[in-house]
Design a protein that fits this description.
about 130 residues, alpha/beta, Rossmann fold, 5-stranded parallel β-sheet, two-stranded antiparallel sheet, 4 helices, globular
Length: about 130
């Protein structure tokens, strides 16, 4: 529809090639990219200023991890998915029910989540795979 606002997706990934791939996936899903950023400090700023509708968070970043970003998003009720090379055990208990996609990820599944399933997955346990 003309004039319809695109969903804004915050991309937090510190590996440049992966960040570019995530950007492509987000755009192909018809969404607008916020970022990408590879540092938690930048991600926290964009989470507040960029007003994302959802987020893709790599767990391990160049300056630590993305858990403070996830906390900030959760307080605002912004759905997010973790992407990581690790398994669910890498998540603190408070995030164990959040969606997690393991790298290497399935681009089609990630794109499907951005097309509306990310919001439905919020608060629902389980790992997308």
């Amino acid at each position: 529809m003309a004039g319809e606002r695109k969903r804004r997706i915050l991309v937090v990934e510190d590996e440049a090639l992966i960040a570019m791939d995530l950007e492509r996936i987000v755009r192909c899903a018809g969404c607008e990219v916020v970022g990408p950023v590879g540092r938690a400090e930048e991600a926290l700023r964009l989470a507040a200023e960029g007003r994302p509708d959802a987020a893709i968070l790599d767990i391990k970043l160049s300056d630590g991890d993305s858990f403070a970003v996830a906390d900030a998003l959760a307080r605002r009720r912004v759905p997010f998915v973790f992407v990581t090379g690790s398994g669910p055990a890498a998540l603190p208990e408070r995030f164990r029910g959040r969606p997690l996609i393991r790298k290497p990820y399935d681009a089609a599944k990630l794109a499907a989540m951005l097309g509306g399933k990310a919001a439905a997955a919020r608060g629902r346990g389980g790992r997308a795979s």
